[in-house]
Design a protein that fits this description.
single chain, three-stranded antiparallel beta sheet, 9 helices, 47% helix
């Protein structure tokens, strides 16, 4: 090519970002925990849900987690969509799940499953709980939304999600207007409240 082609950039849709409410999360975890004692797939799905909603990982990144990626600083994500490795801080709940799986799962991968292994089970859970329009990818939106609603800056959310362009992250910026910056571990209070509710079943 003698010159770079000019491509018309499409405007991003103005649809509302879907994220998991606290009430929905309690219902989801109660349901998964109830069946986890009888069905390993529900237990694995529950672990995958917690890690996804607490880290904002893409599904492909989740499947590539190895025990060696866990450190005192968080979770090192080496294989990313944008080929830019990043470190994701871990909440107490996420770290606890990864440490348990590190001790109980054989092999290097902590989620040693085929791509999209979770999709059918997730849809079944959504149907049972009558929760509409909540996709697995919305767990990533939930992580970003919770950061924004606890006062995280757009740049901080961008780095934790691994976005290349800040414009992608700007979708979450409006959520932070009515909230103050939280404590160092912004997600722990929400996680602990949900865990307390789930353990009471």
């Amino acid at each position: 090519l003698n010159s770079l082609p000019i491509l018309k950039r499409q405007k991003e849709g103005s649809h509302v970002i879907r994220f998991v409410t606290q009430e929905e999360e309690i219902a989801i975890l109660k349901y998964l925990k109830t069946w986890a004692h009888e069905d390993n797939m529900h237990r694995h799905l529950m672990d995958a849900y917690i890690i996804s909603v607490e880290t904002g990982l893409r599904a492909g990144e989740l499947l590539n987690i190895q025990r060696k990626h866990i450190s005192k600083y968080g979770l090192m994500i080496k294989e990313t969509k944008n080929d830019n490795p990043r470190n994701v801080p871990l909440s107490n709940r996420a770290r606890r799940i990864l440490e348990i799986r590190s001790q109980t799962i054989d092999g290097d991968l902590l989620f040693p499953y085929q791509e999209n292994w979770y999709r059918r089970s997730w849809e079944d859970v959504m149907d049972h709980l009558e929760i509409e329009d909540l996709r697995w990818h919305d767990l990533r939106h939930t992580y970003a939304s919770r950061l924004a609603m606890n006062g995280a800056s757009v740049v901080e959310i961008k780095e934790k999600l691994g976005h290349k362009a800040v414009q992608t992250t700007m979708r979450y910026s409006h959520l932070s207007k009515d909230y103050l910056r939280g404590t160092e571990n912004r997600l722990s209070q929400t996680s602990d409240a949900i865990d307390d509710a789930v353990t009471q079943i």
